């Protein structure tokens, strides 16, 4: 809103300083600061409201140190994050930008699914919450919307890059002046760094692009579902999901700025995607909201984000990556989410297999999701293939170490643009 207002004032009245809103860096800084202030200053009021309504977390005794002390801690704190993302974005971003519109839809959509799940658990006293099928339907629905918008919108375009090579190296990268719709995306560790989904259907001739977009939509659905569920599984320790998401959001903001700036895109020889630079404003709000939430969510947590927050964070990260055509970098960037999800999948599969074969189920990890494995002491009557560490680690140490891994993975994700 402020962006459009000050742009109007600058254009027609030449008010000094109004032109600052034309700069993405200025808007991003304002968005970050405003989101940080909203989540910290007004977060306390939301927590007090949740406490008055007795919206407390129900804790199952899993034998983890300090676990029962969390009982009664307010949940649904994801409302703090959602408000701190939406308000600065609405104030400082270009609301006509298709990518900003997509991110706003994603935030509201996934926030609504998570809120409904928490509402059923807390107010209707149903521990199961929203059914797994209903969650999947909501996630698939968002993936379908994102994929179709990317396919149908005339504003979702890219420019082909052409290398001008010297004797030993690339001397320059030239972009065509014409925007095109394409099913290309970025992949790591290969020479050209680009993959076209339509290449899988070369035999289809003129229909290759159409089938390529169908594959793109299916990939979008899978990624939204996988990443949002991964973020949900990671939300089990104080500050773990919020801190990891902040790191991932910061990396995605860098990638969005590079992809949306023709000079940096040319320097890195990556695809130039007009309009994605505006996503940096959203990334600023996302970073400010998650860091501000840590003020109350760090150990010992005064509030939990609940599914309201975790599903929203995962959905935002997934759609953001899809929008800037970096979705195939997510296995690296979201390595923590991936490890948490795989630990559960492997644990359940192995337990079922051994129970069917030997009559007694066995485990790979002491407990899943993975972060709980480090909270359990080894050889404590638990038949698990992996017993180390033998001593249970303190919760803050586990969280910080997972953050460090996230930082390493975020740095690796960014430098894959040059590793080819």
Describe this entry's structure for a reader.
It is built from 15 helices and four strands. It is mostly helical. The protein folds into two domains: 26-333, no CATH class; 345-389, no CATH class. It has a two-stranded antiparallel sheet with strand order 1-2. Strands 3-4 form a two-stranded antiparallel sheet. The protein is globular, with a radius of gyration of 23 Å.
Keywords:
single chain; 420 residues; 2 domains; two-stranded antiparallel sheet; 15 helices; 4 strands; globular
Present the secondary structure layout:
Blueprint: H1 2-13, H2 24-41, H3 43-52, H4 78-92, H5 98-122, H6 132-152, E1 161-165, E2 170-175, E3 184-186, E4 194-196, H7 208-234, H8 240-260, H9 262-268, H10 279-297, H11 306-323, H12 330-333, H13 335-358, H14 370-373, H15 395-415
Antiparallel strand pairs: 1-2, 3-4
Helix pairs in contact: 2-4, 2-10, 4-5, 4-10, 4-11, 5-6, 5-11, 6-7, 6-11, 7-11, 7-13, 8-9, 8-10, 8-11, 8-15
Shape call: globular
Query: What value does the Rg take, in angstroms?
Result: 23 Å
- N to C succession of SSEs: HHHHHHEEEEHHHHHHHHH
- Count of DSSP E strands? 4
- Overall pLDDT: 90
Briefly note the structural class of the backbone.
Answer: mainly alpha
User: How many discrete structural domains?
Assistant: 2
**Span of the ends, CA to CA:** 41 Å
Enumerate the spans where pLDDT stays under 50 for 5 or more consecutive residues.
none
State the helicity in percent bands: 55-70%
């Amino acid at each position: 809103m402020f962006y459009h207002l000050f742009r109007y004032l600058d254009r027609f009245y030449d008010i000094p300083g109004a032109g600052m809103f034309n700069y993405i860096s200025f808007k991003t800084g304002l968005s970050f600061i405003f989101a940080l202030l909203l989540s910290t200053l007004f977060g306390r009021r939301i927590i007090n409201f949740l406490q008055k309504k007795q919206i407390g977390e129900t804790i199952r005794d899993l034998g983890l140190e300090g676990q029962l002390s969390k009982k009664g801690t307010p949940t649904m704190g994801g409302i703090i994050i959602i408000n701190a993302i939406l308000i600065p974005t609405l104030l400082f971003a270009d609301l006509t930008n298709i990518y900003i519109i997509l991110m706003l839809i994603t935030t509201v959509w996934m926030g609504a699914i998570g809120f409904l799940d928490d509402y059923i658990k807390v107010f209707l006293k149903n521990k199961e919450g929203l059914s797994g099928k209903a969650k999947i339907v909501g996630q698939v629905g968002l993936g379908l919307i994102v994929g179709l918008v990317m396919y149908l919108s005339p504003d979702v375009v890219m420019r082909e890059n052409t290398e001008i090579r010297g004797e030993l190296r690339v001397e320059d990268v030239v972009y065509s002046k014409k925007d095109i719709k394409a099913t290309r995306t970025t992949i790591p560790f290969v020479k050209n760094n680009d993959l076209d989904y339509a290449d899988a259907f070369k035999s289809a001739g003129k229909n290759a692009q159409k089938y390529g977009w169908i594959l793109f939509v299916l990939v979008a659905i899978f990624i939204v579902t996988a990443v949002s569920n991964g973020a949900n599984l990671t939300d089990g320790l104080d500050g773990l999901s919020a801190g990891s998401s902040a790191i991932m959001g910061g990396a995605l903001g860098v990638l969005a700025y590079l992809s949306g700036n023709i000079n940096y895109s040319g320097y890195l020889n990556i695809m130039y995607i007009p309009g994605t630079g505006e996503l940096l404003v959203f990334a600023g709000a996302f970073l400010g909201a998650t860091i501000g939430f840590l003020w109350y969510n760090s150990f010992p947590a005064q509030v939990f984000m609940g599914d309201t927050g975790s599903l929203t964070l995962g959905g935002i990260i997934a759609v953001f990556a899809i929008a800037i055509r970096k979705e195939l970098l997510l296995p690296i960037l979201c390595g923590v989410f991936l490890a948490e999800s795989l630990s559960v999948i492997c644990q359940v599969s192995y337990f079922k297999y051994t129970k069917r074969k030997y009559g007694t189920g066995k485990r790979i990890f002491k407990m899943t999701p993975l972060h709980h494995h480090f909270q359990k002491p080894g050889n404590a009557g638990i038949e698990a293939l992996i017993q180390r560490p033998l001593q249970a680690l303190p919760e803050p140490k586990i969280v910080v170490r997972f953050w460090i891994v996230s930082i390493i993975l975020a740095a690796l994700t960014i430098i894959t643009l040059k590793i080819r």
